[in-house]
Design brief:
about 375 residues, alpha+beta, 5-stranded mixed sheet, two-stranded antiparallel sheet, 7 helices, 7 strands
Amino acid sequence: MTKLSLGTRLFLSHFIVMLVGLGSFVILAKLSSPRMFILRLEELENQGFITVRSARTYLIKGFETAWNGSAGWAIIFGASAAGGLSYLAAERIMKPINQMKDITHKLAAGNLQERMPESAIPEFNELGYSFNRMANSLENVENRRRELISDLTHEIRTPLTVVRGYLEELADHRIEPSEELFQKMVQETRRLERLTSDLQELSKAEAGYLSINRQPLQLYPLLESLVEKFRDQLLEDGPILQLESSRDLPLVFADLDRTEQILVNLLGNAIRYTENGSITLRAWREKKWLWLAITDTGIGINQEDISLIFERFWRADKSRSRYSGGTGIGLAIARRLVELQGGKIEVESELGKGSQFRFCLPVV
């Protein structure tokens, strides 16, 4: 069944009100005027008028009296009927508006589970759908905020606890100061520094405050330099890092520094979670996009966790998460940087066999 639009409903309600008013007037006038006129004639007969000519003045007066009386009752009844219908129509139209007002107050008070019910009016139904999407977004933001505070507190507590423990033992002379001890405390403070820096970077990226200087770029020199730099960090018994790309890659419209930041993050993750095997950086063109993929033979990711990998503080290997060097924010930053450059990022993985992270940038 097709639902009538709000404009159609308003038109029909006013039209029906008009018809009811006019109909009431016509019906009552038609029913009551003849009766009143007949009564007036009977009065004239009782007064002794015989001819119409002699009763002319009284006939006209009687007709006016009958018409005025019937018209008055018709107006009263028509106005009452029209007013009643107008009230019902207004109540029906105002009901979803009042519901939205009440739900808005509840949302403002912190009750983020409230939603607009479905309406029979298409415009209000669409408005309710948009309102519910907004409410869902607010609820998700609030949940993510709480999760972020919880995760951040957990992340900060670990290095602070380690540093405090060392300092307390040094103050109580239970351990002797040494270069190794100070290096451990420096390592923990650097983890805190990386965490705060990454959080600041993520906050700017999600708010759209990061400067993105997009221009035509040839990415092959960047890929080549990154592979050479990361090869120096690999141990002899570690994975093999290789580049698979032609030198004549098409120009992309992107930010060089931000693209390098994305690649450094993805390559760093691949090296961190790949003890042996290979890591391959590959680039190829597909229609209007240049795709960049980092494929490793590392620990892989559970299929149920695929949708979570770009969330803050998520890690593939939770048993190594505290000291593997990562803050758990890098992938969230990488995704936002790709999106700010007009691309998208994807992942495929199989537990125990490795992962492939790939993203695309628009070709000039």
